[in-house]
Amino acid sequence: MSLDNISLGAPAPRERGDAARNRRLLLDAAAALVTELGACAVTMDAVAARAGVGKGTVFRRFGNRAGLMRALLDQTETDLQEAFLTGPPPLGPGAPPLDRLVAFGRARLAVIDVQGEVVLEADESPTDRFAVPARFVALTHVRMLLASAGVRGDLHLLAESLLAPLDAALVMHQLRERGIPLDRIAQGWADLVQRVAGSPEPRTTVGIDAANEQ
Questions:
Q1: Which of 1, 83, 147, 210 could link 87 by a cystine bridge, Cβ 3.0 to 4.6 Å?
Q2: Average pLDDT over residues 159-167
Q3: 99 shares its domain with 202
Q4: Within a domain: 128
């Protein structure tokens, strides 16, 4: 499977100049409030007041609070995807697949370190994070790198397992509640990647080839 063939959904309609400016104004206001108060304290009322518009404008633009938080993450996700798809190595093409995989995990952890609260607030339900297009792109990218590194087994489930330690809720718990430094979490990710890549081939391969076609 090639990431070039993945569709992230229908392209958004082109915004008029004034609509794009208003959207940027609202996102700038929301980002400033996140920095000052933390994502959990940001309300639609506060964003509207900071931007100097009516609350209805914020709801029409983003639908609800989770939609506003997702919009804040959109550009970050776009930048990260561009970096691992077309950017310089080791995150982008040109480096060995395992080096790219380690770099991907470190880049994802860096995003959570800065925007972890926003990531959590963007989830409307516990399962939302597993259905968004950005996660599908990340899952496919990890799976492709595992295949390029010659890893054998159920690559789909291995990729899911590798993404699990990068879950924002878990990382935020490790950082804030457990006091684990980000560098240690990143090193743990690198160690896990190496262990997965060096693991022996499964004793049985029944159904694995079919699973890798999913």
A1: 83
A2: 94
A3: yes
A4: yes
Q: Is residue 9 part of a domain?
A: no
Q: Which residue is associated with the tokens 């599908």? A: 136
Q: Are 151 and 167 found together in one domain? A: yes
Return d(Cα 21, Cα 144) in angstroms, integer: 38
pLDDT band at 15 (very low <50, low <70, confident <90, very high): low
Question: 39 is written with which tokens?
Answer: 């994502």
Range of the domain at 182: 66-214
pLDDT tens-place string over residues 68-101:
888 888 867 888 999 999 999 999 999 999 999 9
Residue 82's pLDDT is: 92
CB 19 within 8 A of CB 60: no
Same domain, 130 and 57: no
Angle, nearest 10°, between helix axes 97-121 and 182-197?
Answer: 130
